[in-house]
Amino acid sequence: MQRLLLLISMPICILFIFISSVFSDTVKLKSSREINGRLKEITDKDVVLEMGPGTIWFGKEEVESINGLSIEEAKARLSTEGAFITQDMKQAITSSAQEGLNFVSKTRKLEFKAVPEIEIANKDKIKEYLKQNIEKEYNQEKLSAKIKLWLRLGLISKMVDYQKEVLEPLTEAIAGYYNSDDKKIYVSEDIGYAILPGLPSMTVMHEQVHALQDQYHNLKSIEDSLLLANEDKGLAIESVIEGEATVLMYDAFFRSSKGLGMFDPAKEFDLRSFVIDSMLAYSKHFKTGQRQPAIFMEALLFPYVWGGSFIQHLVNTKGWEAIDEIYLDMPTSSEQIMHPEKYYIVRDEPEEVNFVDVSTILGSSWIRLSRGVLGEFSFYLIGKVFLDELSNKLMSEGWAGDYFEFYEEPNLKQTLLISASKWDSEKEADEFFGFYKKIMEKKYKQPRLVKEDQSFSQWKIGQENIYIFKSKDVVLIIEGASDNIVSNLIGALTI
């Protein structure tokens, strides 16, 4: 399962077409400009480059090189690789599958117990698969609750139509997936035409890694266990699974394109920045009205990007075979994924945080929509919306644990978030306290400061109260409390 910005759980083993931007061709002009796209054709006079839905023609006299090759060398290579795009899709995928099996098995030092079958899937099949897996954990009521939590956290600015704004663009972006129920790899029918030469083999290889994981570590069991885990822990587990497949896939790409793997003992390749840039670049190619904001894309891709860096760190230090040890002792927080040293060197386990039952204070009209752990990555995302990069880093790092409860008063159409977070030290708590106050001042329009001292701040926004309180290494946040209950909540939660 793969979390989408704390909204939905997705099946493990989905590969998004974002990788296409990594395989883009680079046309370097004599003016020193570089243009990225898909090399479509080289005629007697022109170099033709596809860029999303459009096409650009460059006169040969303008072009210095293509992918570092001369025009004639690039033309010869295109004539060879172009055949891969135009041949029958099934034949193309089948011809690349054995190469992928060999590379995956050799790299991971594990033999496949069975060769996974590959099937081409249309968008309707992919959409139905996504829908079924989402409904395993979330009905419409739970989905609505998640969206309302997003809104209260400030990660979105308005309620979203899940079908139109999440599922449909997601379907557009999926290149393939591995189904742990029937043990098959499904590849989108569009990738042979929308993606550059070589991507189908990368897609299949990514999913072959998942098939290998399933054969040795039982992905179905892991998927079922995620239903019981808090979302932050679930995100960490997913990051191991997707991170392994992503790193192996990119290592194969670098070997095929440059003759060298991505692992250099002298300098660790910045996989996270590389993948984020390429994924966000590809997101611009979604259909009009389906482009997701960068914050959505980063959350969506956490298991691939941060998970990839987490696995890369291990492979650089101990080798591929060490990955199997992780499946016996999975990471337990997004913090450990974001800071590998907190898993590999000095294990930093999240601390349990909770607070008293507030249901009697709120009364029967308030309904609890959800509760659980936000985790460092959620605080990181919140900070990314409202703070500069350095401030966000200082605010979110140092997380030690948290717990939240989220309520709604349907008649008043009000939501209430109560969150208690623990930090590694009083200094870290002070930093979070200070930065989160700045976030409140940016997040709400014209908040009126009611009272404040060194340990707390309280604002009024319309009929709602926002309260932040710090005691030693713990920070309490109450967002959305009405006048008649805020003082009782403060009294009960700050004892």
Task: List strands and helices in order, with pairings.
Elements: E1 14-16, E2 25-29, E3 34-42, E4 46-51, E5 54-59, E6 63-66, H1 71-86, H2 89-108, E7 117-121, H3 123-137, H4 140-153, H5 162-173, E8 174-179, E9 184-188, H6 191-194, H7 199-217, H8 219-226, H9 231-258, H10 271-283, H11 294-300, H12 302-318, H13 323-326, H14 334-338, H15 341-344, H16 359-362, E10 367-372, H17 375-386, H18 389-396, E11 399-409, E12 414-423, H19 426-443, E13 448-452, E14 456-461, E15 464-471, E16 474-482, H20 483-493
Parallel strand pairs: 7-9
Antiparallel strand pairs: 1-8, 2-3, 2-6, 3-4, 4-5, 8-9, 10-11, 11-12, 12-16, 13-14, 14-15, 15-16
Question: How would you describe what is shown here?
Answer:
The protein is α+β, with helices and mostly antiparallel strands and 495 residues long. The chain has helices at 71-86, 89-108, 123-137, 140-153, 162-173, 191-194, 199-217, 219-226, 231-258, 271-283, 294-300, 302-318, 323-326, 334-338, 341-344, 359-362, 375-386, 389-396, 426-443, 483-493; strands at 14-16, 25-29, 34-42, 46-51, 54-59, 63-66, 117-121, 174-179, 184-188, 367-372, 399-409, 414-423, 448-452, 456-461, 464-471, 474-482. It folds into three domains: 20-85, SH3 type barrels (Roll); 88-335, Neutral Protease, domain 2 (Orthogonal Bundle); 359-493, Protein Transport Mog1p, Chain A, CATH 3.40.1000. It is 48% helix and 21% strand. The chain has a seven-stranded antiparallel beta sheet with strand order 10-11-12-16-15-14-13, with helices on both faces. A five-stranded antiparallel beta sheet has the order 5-4-3-2-6. The two termini are 39 Å apart. Mean pLDDT is 82; it is low at 1-9, 17-23, 81-87, 192-200 and 284-291.
